[in-house]
Amino acid sequence: MIKEYYREISEDVSLNVTDSKIDSIRKRKIENRSVRLFAENGKTGLSSAVGEVSMADLEKTALENMEMGMTYNYSLPENIKLSSSSANKEILQSGYIEDFGRTFLEGLRKLSNKFIYSNKIVLGKKFHEVKTNSGVELSSLTSELTSALVIKTIGSGNIMDGFLAFSENQIPNFDKVYSEAEIVLSILSAPIIDYDQNEIEVAFMSNELFANFERDFSGLDYMMKNSLFTDKLGDKVFSENVNIFETYEIKNPKRSVPYDDEYFIHEKPFILVENGVMKNLIWDRKNAAKYGKQPTGHGYRNYATNPAISFGGEIMIDPYSGNFNDSCDKITLVPFITSGGDFLPNGDYSTPVQVGFYMKNGKIIGRSKPVTISGNLFKLLSNTNLTGVFTNDLFYSRRDYSVIKTIMSITN
Known about the structure:
Elements: E1 2-18, E2 21-38, E3 44-50, H1 55-65, E4 81-85, H2 96-111, E5 115-132, E6 137-153, E7 162-168, H3 174-189, E8 192-193, E9 199-205, H4 206-210, H5 219-223, E10 244-247, E11 270-274, E12 277-278, H6 285-291, E13 299-300, E14 308-309, E15 314-317, E16 332-338, E17 342-343, E18 348-360, E19 363-368, E20 371-376, H7 377-380, E21 386-390, E22 403-411
Helix pairs in contact: 2-3
């Protein structure tokens, strides 16, 4: 019988911000544990708990839970060892987050007296460990400094007018952070432009566009015919300039654990689309075995569940068109706050843009009215509509993500 022991310890310090000042500090530490058992007859059992419950007690409960009928259909690797750490010792020093928060907010107040900031600044650290009696020993330590500040114009009746968000695993560059803040404040202060055309170039941060359809790369969704890419594996689906991949080796990873929860170690980028051709799907071990495929290292879980198909790294697209700020010779809409919208099985996509701004010749020329943008994913990334994929030199906080420029319909 294979016995798996899982631990996850999360610690964070949260600065609660009201009226542009720190009004309270919360510290929290949570430990999650679980035991999974895999019997030779195909039965499996899981037991989990929050807190320092003994592994022996969890193992006893997991053994009892094997009679609940859960099974597994795959083999697990043995004798795999890896210890990974991307935690930054400087930002984890005692008192750093408090000093950072005060300095950061003071600098924001000096930029303009027309806005107030609220919500949170958080410093987090996470330790993850999984061991088995078959020689698996995997562990990781990560850290993350996150700003999630809501911006409101003084006198505004809105709940929020904008946000200033970034996530770092290093000491932030204050000059660049404040430079981005100035861009955001200039957007909120810019005059509203009434754009009266039916189509416009739209510039998406790549992670924002991909978030809408990342599950369509799931092998299970593909086989169940629930994927946008169903029956398109091996076909040309986008422009030949489009190369999409998953990686764990970006400069500022949000999730930088280089293995999944089924002991698969990621050693190189995982190609999804190459030269516009749909190349690969993602699989966990259970569904790969069910459909006769090879697992790809995409079985992820939390402490209380069994693995399911998911991405663990970041989905990226290779830029090939130079810097974004040099590209806006025509009026370009950059969505800043979007929510809701539809993504239909045929690839039709639409989303309301609550806050957006127009750029031309590398400069912000105005703010958009609330508008709706729409198009079809396959056309948006085709030679017909795609005008380029650019290096992001606009937003420091999103510097790792390319900017995708494409033509979309726009309505007021």
